Amino acid sequence: MLLIPCPHCGPRDHSEFRYGGDASKKRPAHGTADAKLWHDHVFLFDNPKGAHKEYWQHVLGCRQWMVVERDTVTQAISAARPARDGTAHA
Ligand SMILES: [Zn+2]
What spacing in Å lies between the alpha carbon of 76 and ligand 1's midpoint? Predict the structure, then answer.
């Protein structure tokens, strides 16, 4: 069982959350018309081993999006903060 520490609700089972993708990817600038850039952003993913930043939404709780720092090997979560803080790429 994976417990995700929601910054608003506290620790909850991962079944209450929806995975939202890699939070370390930078979205192309608004208005960018380069199709290859968007294709790569939407469809190409890394498969990291170790520490990783991910978007998760607490769909069965507060419905807020958050950035969770999770080790993909040990499943240990070192941090979780609201995504609206804008610190995903910090
Ligand atoms: Zn929550």
Answer: 19
